[in-house]
């Protein structure tokens, strides 16, 4: 009979411990979930589902090497386990092992050709390997099998943005947001491509939407500040940078951007002051005391 650390007898039913692990995993209690799957596997070590979900708990706890080992046991017990192949690939991707990840995604697809998550993940591995055109084709396959799969639309948009194909990127972001409207990173990226397309009002609105969805996300505050500087709207730029710095006080980009806006605003004020002075001189209305104050000293 199995016993706990306190020498209390435990239930010797692997299904019970497996189900307990699944409940704990849904609650993001990863250490507890792993312990439950371990209990299930101590009773029945040839239980591929328990090895798979143990791997998932380890992956979500960012223990990627251990997750890979767990997925590999699941695959050894069930070679056609396409979910385990897919998530093994995700763990390898997190370790920047893009070639090995790609091979794992290919195995998942070989057992389930319409596995749209694996096609999407395959695209991301190909981006990591610099194979951009092949990556686009993988994202296209993911979308073909699941047209409202917003992650694939978003990833496809990110790749087109990287390739500076901004109109195509914009179309992808709009599709992603059609299916999932609260993607704050996508709103931010949409703002960036709109700015690149010189659609400045729409870009400002997109950054504003990113901020509404997630007010503590500093990037749209920063990007909006950058755009306001471009548009010579320095007061608004400084206000945006201030919000960004409240969230990321050590951000060099935000500090530098704010200083640039302040300098340009001061330069604008100085130029206006000079222009006003010149107009006063031309009109003959400049105060004589000001002229005396600014008159250079005569040599003695």
Question: How would you characterize this protein structure?
Answer:
The chain is built from 16 helices and no strands. It has helices at 14-26, 30-43, 48-60, 64-77, 82-94, 98-111, 116-128, 132-145, 150-162, 166-179, 184-196, 200-213, 218-230, 234-247, 252-283, 288-294. The protein is elongated and about 80 Å long. The N and C termini lie far apart (109 Å). Residues 284-300 have low confidence and may be disordered.
Task: Provide keyphrases for this structure.
300 residues; mainly alpha; elongated
Question: How would you summarize the topology of this molecule?
Answer:
Layout: H1 14-26, H2 30-43, H3 48-60, H4 64-77, H5 82-94, H6 98-111, H7 116-128, H8 132-145, H9 150-162, H10 166-179, H11 184-196, H12 200-213, H13 218-230, H14 234-247, H15 252-283, H16 288-294
Helix pairs in contact: 1-2, 1-3, 2-3, 3-4, 3-5, 4-5, 5-6, 5-7, 6-7, 7-8, 7-9, 8-9, 9-10, 10-11, 11-12, 11-13, 12-13, 13-14, 13-15, 14-15
Distance between the termini: 109 Å
Give a quick account of the main beta sheet: strands, pairing sense, barrel closure.
none
Alpha-carbon Rg, integer: 29 Å
- Count of helical regions: 16
Q: What proportion of the residues form beta strands (DSSP E)?
A: under 5%
State mean pLDDT (0 to 100 scale).
89
Which blocks of ≥5 consecutive residues have pLDDT under 50?
Answer: 284-300
Structural class: mainly alpha
The helix-strand sequence is: HHHHHHHHHHHHHHHH
Q: Assign an overall shape.
A: elongated
Amount of helix: over 70%
Number of DSSP-assigned strands: 0
